[in-house]
Amino acid sequence: MNAVPRKLSLDEWDERYAELRRAGLTEPAYGGPLRRHRVEGGDRRLDHLCLDNSAASLRLWNLLLSEEQRLRQARARGFKIVGAMKDLGTVPVMAYSLPNLVAFYPDGAWWIPCLMEQSDGLLRIADSLGIDESFCPVRAILGAFVTQAHFPLPDLLTCSVGAVCDDFSAIAQRLEALGSRILWWEMPRRRRPDPDEPAARLPGGFAAPASQVALVQFELDRVRQALESLAGQALDEARLAAGIRAANRIRRLLAALRRQVYARDPCPLPALEMLVAEMLAIHFCSDQAETAAVLQGLLMEVQSRVAKGQGVLPAAAARIFWVNPVADLRIMNLLEECGGRVCGTDYMFTHALDEIPADVPPLEGLARTALADPMVGSAEDRAERICADFRAWGAEALLIARIPGASHCAREGEVIRNCAQARLGVPALEIEVPSISDAMRPSLRSRIEALVETVRNRRSA
């Protein structure tokens, strides 16, 4: 089943799938050809994406694109469904600590207009509800709840509130006004401890006042009680600790994968597959065990390629540190077409990649992790971590993807860019990427090519 690493179009994947089947490919229950997601699921964007040709990547894409089916099957088996909004990596860990709960992020609906090339109508529904294009594309979540066509309505819906994106807060409040009952839990704006103030170290190197950790721990205990009530079972410290160990195993697998991919030349796995892989950490794509299996498969594929000196991109591609996820997945292909590669990331959930502290009580460990969210502190704090990670990965340039309409993107990109240029002295580019970027593609290509050319010129200077 081994083949020279390269990226394939959907048409080319048809033949590749047949080849893998002839070679004895063993697939999980959700497996099958990628084509079916285009034909049956309406994921039209697949026609325009270039996808890695490994069996491991096939399993990754099938896991991602079969989540709705998996959620509906879980409900049919008697599982209760938790919709966790905005905290990105905390409530799902708690939910999966109970044997009869499954969790997902309704926030993921922001990719639906891209994958379905706006044939879904979700953004039009949001417009009709007063949430127009001046808001972040995550407004698609409103249409998904109204149509009930993309995921089953959760039995419990939670949302962190306080130091979160203003857009998301407004959208979630509109969702509640439409009849969705939400368990809100408070997330304070993280601040640096005052001198002599009791403090706690957070994953990723941040610090916060111990009083803030205690507050978040109190709020998460409210969530814990709601999960217990939903499951009809106790979520005690032993179960939480076991849930944290399972989550940390996935985070370690992802850390190993990132080390192998971002530190190697030639690059052994494309940026698009790495973006999807990193996203798995926040809620395990509604199946924690399969997420671990998918990441293990990707890691083995990458290790094999590294051992053979194989890469999916030409050697010496410009090493780009990427900030913020893109609403249009095709942009990750575009970076590589322009001669770049992703070498380090901050997709707004770095706290979901760091291991949850296991040397403190479980709820305290989760509270520390939640407070490490780069989006609940200052832009300066986030820029500081980006600079540290930039150095660690040996990146050569910074690319910031501004999300149209997102309130946090108004000035944050400028702060990050200025910090990187002042501290690192590296070229930095900020671009804006809508859900479908085809009309902007020539302009985006020119700007990314200019960044790549700057990197090449600096190498030879």
Topology:
Blueprint: E1 7-8, H1 10-22, H2 35-39, E2 51-52, H3 55-65, H4 67-76, E3 80-85, H5 91-95, E4 101-104, H6 112-115, H7 122-128, H8 140-147, E5 156-162, H9 166-177, E6 183-187, E7 199-201, E8 207-209, H10 210-231, H11 237-262, H12 271-283, H13 288-308, E9 318-323, H14 330-337, E10 340-346, H15 362-371, H16 379-393, E11 397-402, H17 412-424, E12 428-432, H18 441-460
Parallel strand pairs: 3-4, 3-5, 5-6, 9-10, 9-11, 11-12
Antiparallel strand pairs: 1-2, 7-8
Helix pairs in contact: 3-12, 3-13, 7-8, 10-15, 11-12, 11-13, 16-17
How would you describe the overall organization of this protein?
The chain has a domain at 71-111 and 148-238. Strand 9 (318-323), helix 14 and strand 10 form a beta-alpha-beta unit. The model has no long low-confidence stretch (mean pLDDT 96). It has helices spanning 10-22, 35-39, 55-65, 67-76, 91-95, 112-115, 122-128, 140-147, 166-177, 210-231, 237-262, 271-283, 288-308, 330-337, 362-371, 379-393, 412-424, 441-460; strands at 7-8, 51-52, 80-85, 101-104, 156-162, 183-187, 199-201, 207-209, 318-323, 340-346, 397-402, 428-432. The longest helix is centred in the middle third of the chain and has 26 residues, at 237-262. It is globular and about 55 Å long. The protein contains 18 helices and twelve strands. The protein is α/β, with parallel strands linked by helices and 461 residues long. The strands form four sheets. It has a four-stranded parallel β-sheet.
